[in-house]
Amino acid sequence: MLISIWLIEKIILILRLLSSVVKVIKIKFVMTKAEIVNEVAKSTGIEKATVQIVVESFMECVKDSLAKGNPVYLRGFGSFIIKHRAEKAARNITKNTTMTIPAHNIPAFKPAKVFTNVVK
């Protein structure tokens, strides 16, 4: 009886440790806009406020260009492009009806070959 209680306590302890490690791993691999600003500010020595303005301006320029129908090419990084989705039929299973989804454009990112090689 004592061995089983001891074993259960150790298993619970190990599971708690693993869950905290998994939480750290999940958080570690997510990079937000604020973290990008911090990294750029740290590596260049430019103030965070200035870097924040530059990052937001860059994102706004990309959105404006794609909204006008123009792709954005960044050599060695990738391309922000517009993909056209054709009209298609879809089903609403709750009402058992068919509906048509109209043709539309969506933004997409295609990484450059150099970028994909670095990630591999």
Spell out the key features of this protein:
120 residues, two-stranded antiparallel ribbon, 5 strands, HU Protein, Chain A, extended, 3-stranded antiparallel sheet
Explain briefly what this protein structure is.
With 120 residues, the protein is an alpha+beta fold.
Radius of gyration: 24 Å
Low-pLDDT segments, ≥5 res:
none
Number of helices: 4
Mean pLDDT: 82
Return the CATH topology: HU Protein, Chain A
Secondary-structure element string: HHHEEEEEH
Architecture, CATH level 2?
Irregular
Q: What fraction, in percent, of the residue positions are helical?
A: 55-70%
Question: Which geometry do the CA atoms define?
Answer: extended
Write structural notes for this entry.
The chain has 120 residues and is α+β, with helices and mostly antiparallel strands. It has a single domain, classed as Irregular (HU Protein, Chain A), CATH 4.10.520. Helix 2 crosses helix 3. The radius of gyration is 24 Å and the shape is extended.
List the topology elements.
Layout: H1 2-28, H2 33-44, H3 48-67, E1 72-74, E2 78-85, E3 88-92, E4 97-101, E5 104-111, H4 113-119
Antiparallel strand pairs: 1-2, 2-5, 3-4
Helix pairs in contact: 2-3
